[in-house]
C-alpha cells in the first residue's frame, strides 16, 4: 500500500457508500480510462470476471472456438470453459515470449478452411511484455475476428507509445494481490466501445432490466467491485508509475549482475515496447550452465528464497486435454522450452537492495 488508500476508504465510510457502487467506483473507472487512454472502463471483482464478460459480450456460446495464448495463467482460458467454448492454444515466439504470429496465421487458415473461425482471440502480455500487436492484429483483422487483450500482468506497459491493454475490442486488467497494483482482488475491463461497457456493467449486476420490479431476460453475474476496494484502487493508480520504475530497477540490477553468465538469458524487451517488468524472468540453458532451472530453484529454496517456474503452457495442462495447439514451428515449440528452462525471480516493487543481493549471490554461487 502507498499510504493514500485510507483517505479514499474513509470517504466511503463517511458517506456510508459500502456497496458495489459509489464515488470511488465511478472515479476509479474514469481515472483508469484516462490513464490507459481508453474511451471507458468498467471496474469488476476480478480480471477473470473481466475476461468472462468480454467473451460473453463477443457472443461466445456453447461449442464456439476461442483462440488463446498457451503460455499464460489458467485464468486467461478458464472463462472460455465457463461459456461452454472450445479453447485452441497458440504457441509463443522468441522475441516477446508471447503469441506467435506464425502459429496464429496457421490456426486462422485452418479454421477458415473448416468454416469455423474463432469468436475471439485472447492475447496475453506475459510478465508485462507486450505481444507483437501489429502482426497479431493484422491477422485477426484480416479474418474480422475480435481481440481481447489480457493485460492482467502488463498495466503500465506500452507498445509503440500506446498503453498495453488498449489494442483489442476489450482490454483486461487485474488488481489481484500479486499484481503490480492491487485492490486485494479486482479487475477492470476497458474498451473504446462505451455501449459495450454499459452492457458489461449491466451483466455484472445480475442483468436487471429497467423495471420497478426485478425483471430478467438474460443470465447475469455478480461481478462489480465494492466502493471500498475501488478506493484502494484509486490510491494505487497514483503510484503505478513509481511501481513500474521500481520493477524495472529490480530487473536492471539482476541483468547487470547475472547477464554475463553464459547460458543465462533474460526475457527480452521488444524494440518499441516498454515493459512494466512485473516479474523478472530468465531462461537457463543447462547444456551451457550445467545446472537446470529446477536445480537453481532448489538452491534458492534452500536459502528460503521463493522462485517459480514460468507458467506451465495451457496446452500441457490436464484440464485442457484434447484441445488443439499450434506450435511456433514444428521444430521450435517455444512455450514448452520456456516452461522447461524458465524461472521467475523475486521481483517485488518493495524488494530491498540487500534482499536482491542475496538472491544474486545464491544464483552466482550455484552457477560458478
Ligand atoms: C492474474 C491474471 C489473470 C486473472 O486475474 P484475477 O484478477 O486474478 O482474476 C488473468 N490473466 C493473467 C495473465 C493473469 O496473470
Q: What is the assigned CATH homologous superfamily of the largest domain? A: Type I PLP-dependent aspartate aminotransferase-like (Major domain)
Major sheet summary line: 8 strands, mixed
Task: Categorize the overall geometry.
Answer: globular
Helical proportion? Answer: 25-40%
Ligands bound, unique: pyridoxal-5'-phosphate
Number of helical regions: 13
CATH structural class of the largest domain: Alpha Beta
Given the helix and strand composition, which structural class is it? alpha/beta
Strand/helix succession: HHEHEHEHEHEEEEEHHHEEEHHEEHEH
Give start-end ranges of low-pLDDT stretches. none
Side by side, the strands of the main sheet go 1-9-8-5-4-2-3-14
Domain module tally: 2
Quick one: how many beta strands?
15
CATH architecture descriptor of the largest domain:
3-Layer(aba) Sandwich
Please tell me the overall pLDDT: 97
CATH topology type of the largest domain: Aspartate Aminotransferase, domain 2
Alpha-carbon distance between the termini? 38 Å
Radius of gyration from the CA trace? 21 Å
* Percent strand: 15-25%
Detailed description of the structure:
- This protein is an alpha/beta fold.
- It folds into 2 domains: about 5-240, Aspartate Aminotransferase, domain 2; about 240-365, Aspartate Aminotransferase, domain 1, CATH 3.90.1150.
- Helix content is about 40%, strand content about 15%.
- The strands form 3 sheets. The protein has an 8-stranded mixed β-sheet, with helices on both faces.
- Strand 2 (about 65-70), helix 4 (about 80) and strand 3 (about 85-90) form a beta-alpha-beta unit.
- The mean pLDDT is about 95.
- The structure holds pyridoxal-5'-phosphate (PLP).
Amino acid at each position: 500500500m502507498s499510504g493514500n488508500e485510507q483517505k479514499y476508504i474513509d470517504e466511503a465510510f463517511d458517506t456510508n457508500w459500502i456497496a458495489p457502487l459509489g464515488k470511488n467506483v465511478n472515479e476509479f473507472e474514469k481515472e483508469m480510462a484516462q490513464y490507459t487512454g481508453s474511451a471507458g472502463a468498467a471496474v469488476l471483482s476480478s480480471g477473470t470476471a473481466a475476461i468472462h464478460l468480454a467473451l460473453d459480450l463477443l457472443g461466445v456460446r456453447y461449442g464456439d472456438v476461442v483462440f488463446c495464448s498457451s503460455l499464460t495463467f489458467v485464468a486467461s482460458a478458464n472463462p472460455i470453459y465457463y461459456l461452454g467454448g472450445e479453447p485452441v492454444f497458440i504457441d509463443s515466439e522468441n522475441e516477446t515470449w508471447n503469441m506467435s504470429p506464425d502459429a496464429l496465421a496457421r490456426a486462422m487458415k485452418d479454421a477458415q478452411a473448416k468454416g469455423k473461425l474463432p469468436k475471439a482471440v485472447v492475447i496475453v502480455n506475459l510478465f508485462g511484455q507486450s505481444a507483437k500487436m501489429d502482426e497479431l492484429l493484422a491477422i485477426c483483422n484480416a479474418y474480422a475476428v475480435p481481440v481481447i487483450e489480457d493485460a492482467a500482468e502488463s498495466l503500465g506497459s506500452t507498445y509503440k507509445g500506446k498503453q498495453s491493454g488498449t489494442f483489442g475490442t476489450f482490454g483486461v486488467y487485474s488488481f489481484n494481490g500479486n499484481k503490480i497494483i492491487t485492490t486485494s482482488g479486482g479487475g477492470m475491463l476497458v474498451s473504446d466501445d462505451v455501449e459495450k461497457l454499459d452492457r458489461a456493467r449491466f451483466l455484472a449486476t445480475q442483468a436487471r432490466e429497467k423495471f420497478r420490479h426485478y425483471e430478467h431476460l438474460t443470465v447475469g453475474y455478480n461481478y462489480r467491485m465494492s466502493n471500498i476496494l475501488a478506493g484502494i484502487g484509486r490510491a494505487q493508480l497514483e503510484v503505478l508509475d513509481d511501481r513500474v520504475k521500481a520493477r524495472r530497477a529490480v530487473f536492471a540490477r539482476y541483468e547487470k549482475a547475472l547477464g554475463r553468465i553464459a547460458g543465462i538469458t533474460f526475457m527480452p524487451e521488444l524494440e518499441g515496447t516498454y515493459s512494466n517488468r512485473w516479474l523478472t524472468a530468465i531462461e537457463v540453458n543447462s547444456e551451457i550452465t550445467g545446472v537446470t532451472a529446477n536445480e537453481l530453484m532448489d538452491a534458492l529454496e534452500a536459502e528460503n528464497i521463493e522462485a517459480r517456474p514460468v507458467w506451465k503452457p495451457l496446452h500441457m495442462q490436464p484440464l485442457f486435454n484434447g484441445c488443439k495447439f499450434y506450435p511456433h514451428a514444428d521444430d521450435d515449440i517455444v512455450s514448452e522450452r520456456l516452461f522447461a528452462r524458465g524461472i521467475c525471480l523475486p521481483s517485488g516493487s518493495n524488494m530491498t537492495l540487500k534482499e536482491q543481493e542475496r538472491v544474486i549471490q545464491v544464483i552466482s554461487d550455484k552457477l560458478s
